[in-house]
Amino acid sequence: MTSTIELTRIFDAPRELVYAAWTEPKHFTHWWGAPLDTISLDVRPGGEWRATIVVDEQTQVPFVGVYQEVVPNERLSYTLVDQSGREPHPGQENEPEVVTVTFADADGGTKMTFVQKGNLPEEEVPRAEEGWGYFFAALDDYLKTVK
């Protein structure tokens, strides 16, 4: 079972800033929903990243992964593993999702293309797409405050 989520957004912000929002904890915290003290981003091939989304006092969702490809201001590829303790779906136990984000100049801003591939069950794809949509709306709002 392989699923793919692909989303494209245009941000009214320079490519370097959009890339920094993905790679610098001081920016990442503002749109990912993770407190700064839970974020670690070792942005290099083989480097690990981790961040814990805090929904409320009872709900925290830790994510971890490893950067596979890093081309500054152009491309990031990394694994994505939800460590919240949920039971994995059959066949998904050791298969992380792989996320690739590309950044390109567009209309005076940045075109960001996001692709997530892996073993996400098809019935969970719409919910995941909606979740990423919320993240990217928060990213858009944040980028408007740091220009």
CATH homologous group name: START domain
The proportion of residues forming helix, as a percent range, comes to 25-40%
Please, what is the average pLDDT? Answer: 91
Largest beta sheet: strand ordering = 1-7-6-5-4-3-2
Our measurement of the CA-to-CA distance between the termini, rounded to an integer number of angstroms, reads: 42 Å
Quaternary assembly: single chain
E-strand count: 7
Form type: globular
- What is the alpha-carbon Rg in Å? 15 Å
Order of helices and strands: EHHEEEEEEH
Beta-strand share of residues = 35-45%
CATH class: Alpha Beta
Q: What structural category arises from helix and sheet content? A: alpha+beta
Main sheet properties: 7 strands, antiparallel
Task: Count the domains.
Answer: 1
Core attributes:
26% helix, 147 residues, globular, seven-stranded antiparallel sheet, alpha+beta, Alpha-D-Glucose-1,6-Bisphosphate, Chain A, domain 4
